[in-house]
UniProtKB/TrEMBL annotation:
Annotated signal sequence range: none
Protein family membership: Belongs to the class I-like SAM-binding methyltransferase superfamily. RsmB/NOP family.
GO molecular function: RNA binding; rRNA (cytosine-C5-)-methyltransferase activity
Pfam families xref list: Methyltr_RsmB-F, RsmF-B_ferredox
Active-site positions on this chain: C300
UniProt binding sites for S-adenosyl-L-methionine: A175, S176, A177, P178, G179, G180, K181, D199, D226, D243
Stated name of the protein: Nucleolar protein 2
The keyword Lyase appears for this protein: no
Cellular component terms (Gene Ontology): nucleolus
SAM-dependent MTase RsmB/NOP-type domain ranges (all copies): 83-371
Gene Ontology BP annotations: maturation of LSU-rRNA; rRNA base methylation
């Protein structure tokens, strides 16, 4: 395989490119980068092949060069191509059974009777069903209108499963429209407690309210506030779900416009907004909650700036927060370092989901526990005490290791004292006794052992004093 020359690149740019030729070149470059020493050309570097691969991905799949490079940098070359390929394939249609009104088994049987081909999504969920084919509109069946199920992507099940709301709790969904996650939380709480379903866009709360009523969620309060106003408007929640506004790089298969309408400035602005929202979500938690104290931060984006970067920022700004296990049975671990960026050591507890790996929309899920300030103070105090003890021990070690010297002027008074003279005479006598003992033949019954000599020395000292 030979890389195109500059003239060939210019001709392709002006006259257009043959899609089959470009895709074939993509596969060839991936093969070369997989075993570079074996397949590389003599006068070509890895950077040459990588730059050409990114350019071909951009032109073949329709991404801007900036976004193609940003997404490509997260994967190995072969996995990157698999990711871009998966974004060209629509995701399966899935629904969630509403356990407030029915059971999944009963719902599946009712839909099968109407000519719907379906099966459970997987073992990881007890409420999801995947639709393969249907003779009737899935969004207009009597079961749908009666609120027995919700059209919902499986990736949006994950944040709610990670949050794990309990009955009688006080929960906030900061960006809730159109209501799939809110209604799922209401079902898990068995219509007890209260779920505050907030969305900054008042127009979107219409569909949110409609779904809440259709699904029979009686513990939901719909409100319209900017998420950054929490906890000023209301706080003291046991759990908070923040499915933050994002670039949508995980849902390209559903919204192809993401490929061309996201710039570097967009990512910077979104990241800034997400950092503000996650701090407000943390501050809205009741740290004295007996059952909760958790925040789940999720996005439908796969970029590091919107995922690990935001969580890492929150951990630095709020020392009383720690990452905990999401409780999800599958998913790829979050990055602890990538592209020269270092993140918190516990970032592996977060989970990433990819369309080419899990056959669902790209998603990021993290779970944080907010600890009381008193616990933080105790930890800081213990850390300070430990640091002081370590410093004290280090000073003692330094003093013990220092050179020992004698000052004759300071010791003169002690050396001339009566006690010192008697002790010196005693030791001299002991030395003479030891010398005499060496000349004697010690029998097997002799008891002149080092311990006996030491005891005899003590007797001498007693007699003289």
């Amino acid at each position: 395989m030979v890389l195109p020359t500059e003239e060939e690149k210019e001709r392709e740019a002006t006259e257009g490119q043959d899609a089959q030729v470009v895709y074939g070149r993509i596969r060839d470059i991936v093969r070369i980068l997989g075993d570079f020493r074996r397949f590389k050309a003599a006068n070509r570097s890895r950077a040459d092949y990588t730059q050409q691969l990114i350019a071909d991905i951009s032109s073949y799949y329709g991404y801007t060069p900036f976004l193609a490079e940003k997404l490509f940098s997260m994967f190995s070359p072969d996995e990157a191509v698999a990711f871009f390929d998966a974004n060209e394939t629509p995701r399966p249609v899935t629904i969630r059974a509403n356990t407030l009104k029915t059971r999944r088994r009963d719902l599946a049987q009712a839909l099968i009777n109407r000519g719907v081909s379906l099966e459970p999504i997987g073992k990881w969920t007890k409420v999801g069903l995947q639709i393969f084919d249907s003779n009737v509109p899935v969004g207009a069946t009597p079961e749908y209108l009666a609120g027995h199920y919700m059209l919902q992507s499986p990736s949006s099940f994950l944040p709610v499963m990670a949050l794990d709301p309990q009955p009688n709790e006080r929960v906030l969904d900061m960006a809730s429209a159109p209501g799939g996650k809110t209604s799922y939380m209401s079902a898990l709480m068995q219509n007890t407690g209260v779920v505050f379903a907030n969305d900054a866009n008042a127009a979107r709360t219409k569909s949110l309210s409609a779904n809440v009523h259709r699904l029979g969620c009686k513990n939901v309060v719909v409100c319209t506030h900017d998420g950054r106003q929490f906890p000023k408007v209301i706080g003291g929640f046991d759990r908070v779900l923040l499915d933050a506004p994002c670039s949508g790089t995980g849902v390209v298969s559903k919204d192809q416009s993401v490929k061309v309408n996201k710039t570097e400035r967009d990512f910077a602005l979104l990241s800034h907004l997400q950092k503000q929202l996650i701090l407000c979500a943390i501050d809205s938690i009741n740290t004295k909650s007996a059952t909760g104290g958790f925040v789940v931060y999720s996005t439908c984006s796969v970029t590091v700036d919107e995922d690990e970067g935001v969580v890492d920022y929150a951990l630095k700004k709020r020392p009383n927060v720690k990452l905990v296990d999401t409780g999800l049975e599958f998913g790829v671990e979050g990055f602890t370092n990538i592209g020269g960026k270092q993140f918190h050591k516990d970032m592996h507890l977060t989970r990433r989901f990819y369309p080419h790996v899990h056959n669902m929309e790209g998603f990021f899920v993290s779970k944080l526990q907010v600890l009381p300030r008193s616990v933080l103070k105790n930890k800081l105090q213990q850390a300070e005490e430990k640091e002081e003890n370590d410093e004290r021990l280090e000073e003692d070690d330094n003093e013990a290791g220092a050179d020992v010297t004698f000052n004759d002027d300071e010791d003169k008074a002690l050396m001339e004292s009566e006690y010192f003279t008697l002790t010196r005479n005693c030791l001299t006598k002991t030395q003479k006794t030891n010398a005499a003992n060496k000349k004697l033949e010690v029998s097997s019954h002799s008891n002149l052992k080092p311990s006996n000599l030491f005891f005899r020395l003590l007797l001498y000292i007693r007699d003289f004093t």
